[in-house]
């Protein structure tokens, strides 16, 4: 087991948020810069941090952990809180919200018509999961996927948050940047664009290529995606860390000087270095320059009360929920008051395992999951969930038991007038020990519409088991 002393852990979590505030404030004025920059430090007035949506959204995720508990965190509940408490509609935020309001559940909400799904909105908000699951990258990335798929589906934007969440979690027990990057790469598809761009930086750095030339190689490599996209900006962050030798000032300035999404690259760089080194790694002059206060820009203050006002308060509240997250996920780590931290049992090879991550990133993009206590059902479409008048739509219903005893699960369909469905009336779920979670029972269905197709059509499948009181209702939203 990994043992964290509470005060020592607090120092690292606090440094994470101070580092994030520093980077967001320093990089904020240069966002969308197309060219290489030459900043030397802050250009904002002394005494206060700039508002930063990178941090704002994580305050809402903290609210969910506090109100609902760690076992309740899913893309669906994150999406519902998003609609209530996060007003902005820019880029993927707006597309994800629009899809949620149409009835599309995550990751469908992040996939449908989303030309921003490879962008930066997800990986910039991964610190909350890392701080709640220190030293446990597979737990952190599990939550990161639920988070990212709300507005990025199963895309490069989601792979990017899996990368950052895992290295930030591992940084609580490892301060070797080369090892951290290897851990991050082990958690995403080997052939994805994020992995390609990160490997480009690693290769350039190893060969002694100048950082500016490396930056230009990355821009050329990602010109088909354009600016504000995850692969390039993740790589700029890694460039700052490698070429800056993890020196706080040098690394952050290098990351920001690459341009593009500068508040995000600076903030993520600062947060990671804060976790790695604690407050002693953060220059005192920069810390004093921005202070402790959190300034929000993307939270609905009219409907939410009690948001943390400072990095200190945010740290203490995260430290209160972190033990619950670790316990709920059977983590090999715990937090104590009266003993020093002991990370000797943190295993690099185990943290580099691809098994848990592969199950997550292999999830079908055109799908979503619902829980009905007795089991979980995943709706899987072949593509966009769209139907024409008198047309048909094929999909699968994958059902997994969450109880140990075998049972039949029956299906009853609630359809628009004149619509029909073809497929089995029930499925049989075997004993738990004969049906591991990755071997669900899959049923295939075809829905046929009549001439009346609405813009948004809600189908419900009622799932029940004889002798059990709970009935599950799985929504199937189909776009006309």
Shape: globular
* Low-confidence parts: none
- The helix tally amounts to 18
Content-based structural category:
alpha+beta
Gap from first CA to last CA: 53 Å
Strand content: 5-15%
**What order do the helices and strands follow?**
EHHHHHHHHHHHHHHHHEHHEEEEEEEEE
Number of strands: 11
For the sheet with most strands, the description reads:
5 strands, antiparallel
Query: Helical content, roughly?
Result: 40-55%
Strand order within the widest sheet?
Answer: 3-4-5-9-7
Mean pLDDT: 96
Query: Radius of gyration from the CA trace?
Result: 23 Å
Q: How would you describe the overall organization of this protein?
A:
The chain is of the alpha+beta class and 480 residues long. It contains 18 helices and eleven strands. It has a five-stranded antiparallel sheet with strand order 3-4-5-9-7, with no helix packed on it. A four-stranded antiparallel sheet has the order 8-6-10-11, with no helix packed on it. The protein has a two-stranded parallel ribbon with strand order 1-2. Strand 10 and strand 11 form a beta hairpin. The protein is globular, with a radius of gyration of 23 Å. The model has no long low-confidence stretch (mean pLDDT 96).
Topology summary:
Layout: E1 2-5, H1 6-27, H2 53-68, H3 75-85, H4 91-102, H5 108-111, H6 127-132, H7 137-152, H8 156-170, H9 177-186, H10 193-207, H11 211-221, H12 230-243, H13 248-257, H14 262-277, H15 284-290, H16 311-328, E2 333-336, H17 348-351, H18 355-361, E3 367-371, E4 375-381, E5 392-401, E6 407-414, E7 420-422, E8 426-429, E9 441-448, E10 456-464, E11 472-479
Parallel strand pairs: 1-2
Antiparallel strand pairs: 3-4, 4-5, 5-9, 6-8, 6-10, 7-9, 10-11
Helix pairs in contact: 1-14, 1-16, 2-3, 2-16, 3-7, 7-8, 7-18, 8-9, 10-11, 10-12, 11-12, 12-13, 12-14, 13-14
